[in-house]
């Protein structure tokens, strides 16, 4: 006997038995960490004077110590005993604050305009794929150099438009990477470390938005809500936003997705996901394995019968999977019997896999990129 899909109300009722997932969320305004800024006698933060992406002192020091990344080496000197640094390609690396180490010298700090120029270089020349290097290597280099840029912002206590421009591009890069490298082994990409920096950027940006009006705030507020899917605190924060931001299309759509998930209405949730933009889909993608698992659990209870069969193609469509083959694989991982193009749900047979498996999704994510380059995505160009 074939059975139609569960209604939204059935899924909603089942969802009330779920507990809210534990998610990291920061609402407090960003403040520089104590100990990272050495103010002068009048209490003012140092102002950078370095006009390049990397100071001459650091560039020569890393050249002498053979610590140049291959993206920074002067073309034609790669095989030299001591490769030369290219002044137009070397970028200041992140350095941890250390006792006795002065990180506030103006000659080592890049002013905000130079920092934005540096970030744009990293996006346009490295993250864009022009180097032809594996993306795990691209991520490692860009991640470190963006962290260095945020460190210079911190030391100089920069705020305002240029600060927001740097942080927004950094955030988009990190959110995109969370999807791009989701299938990589832990030795190549650590999602927890990436998540820590995503949350730091969200916290810092939300603090900046409270201090003034910025054009891209609705986009970032929507990304924050989707990235922290399932957080009641995140949804409450969104509902407290100023009316012009709260009523913006990206925020309204993200709020609808969040409410559908919190209510357990996963049928509507997966339907709404199809309306998200490419970057919004990258932000919510990390939650899809859990959402699909919950959907299968609901169906295993709602359709538990040895005599009932559920159409596999319909299940694949409801779960926004690539096809019946992927749906069958997911069902078997959860102990659900697949026979031909049908599924037999039994609540006693359902089992939890040892870990969530994150996979790329053409239908929900990749397709939406269209003909836009990665640089366009990170810059926020529509």
Automatic annotation (TrEMBL):
Pfam families: SAC3_GANP
Region of interest (Disordered), ranges: 81-107
Classification via InterPro entries: SAC3/GANP/THP3, SAC3/GANP/THP3_conserved
Gene: SAC3D1
Highest taxon listed in the record's lineage: Eukaryota
Assigned GO CC terms: centrosome; nucleus; spindle
Annotated ranges, domain SAC3/GANP/THP3 conserved: 53-339
GO BP terms in the entry: centrosome duplication; spindle assembly
Chain intervals with Basic and acidic residues compositional bias: 81-95
Name of protein: SAC3 domain-containing protein 1 isoform X1
């Amino acid at each position: 006997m074939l059975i139609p899909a569960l209604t939204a109300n059935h899924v909603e009722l089942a969802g009330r038995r779920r507990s809210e997932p534990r998610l990291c969320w920061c609402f407090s305004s960003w403040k520089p960490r104590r100990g990272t800024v050495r103010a002068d006698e009048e209490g003012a933060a140092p102002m950078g004077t370095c006009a390049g992406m990397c100071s001459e002192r650091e560039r020569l020091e890393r050249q002498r110590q053979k610590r140049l990344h291959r993206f920074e080496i002067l073309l034609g000197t790669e095989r030299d005993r001591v490769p030369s640094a290219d002044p137009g390609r070397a970028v200041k690396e992140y350095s941890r604050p250390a006792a006795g180490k002065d990180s506030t010298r103006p000659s080592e700090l890049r002013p905000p305009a130079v920092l934005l120029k540096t970030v744009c270089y990293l996006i346009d020349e490295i993250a864009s794929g022009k180097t032809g290097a594996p993306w795990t290597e691209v991520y490692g280099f860009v991640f470190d150099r963006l962290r260095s840029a945020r460190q210079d912002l911190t030391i100089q206590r920069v705020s305002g438009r240029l600060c927001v421009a740097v942080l927004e591009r950094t955030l988009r890069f990190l959110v995109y990477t969370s999807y791009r490298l989701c299938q990589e082994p832990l030795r190549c990409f650590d999602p927890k470390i990436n998540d820590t920096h995503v949350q730091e950027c969200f916290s810092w940006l939300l603090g900046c938005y409270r201090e003034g009006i910025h054009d891209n705030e609705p986009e970032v507020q929507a990304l924050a809500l989707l990235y922290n899917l399932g957080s009641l605190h995140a949804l409450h924060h969104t509902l407290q936003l100023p009316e012009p931001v709260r009523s913006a299309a990206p925020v309204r759509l993200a709020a609808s997705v969040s409410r559908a998930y919190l209510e357990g209405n996963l049928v509507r949730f997966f339907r709404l996901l199809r309306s998200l933009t490419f970057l919004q889909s990258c932000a919510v993608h990390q939650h899809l394995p859990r959402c699909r698992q919950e959907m299968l659990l609901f169906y295993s209870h709602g359709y538990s019968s040895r005599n009932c069969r559920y159409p596999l193609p319909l299940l694949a469509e409801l779960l926004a999977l690539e096809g019946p083959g992927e749906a069958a694989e997911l069902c078997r991982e959860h102990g659900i019997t697949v026979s031909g193009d049908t599924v037999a749900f039994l609540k006693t047979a359902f089992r939890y896999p040892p870990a969530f498996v994150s996979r790329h999704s053409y239908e929900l994510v990749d397709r939406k990129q269209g003909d836009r380059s990665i640089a366009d995505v990170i810059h926020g160009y529509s």
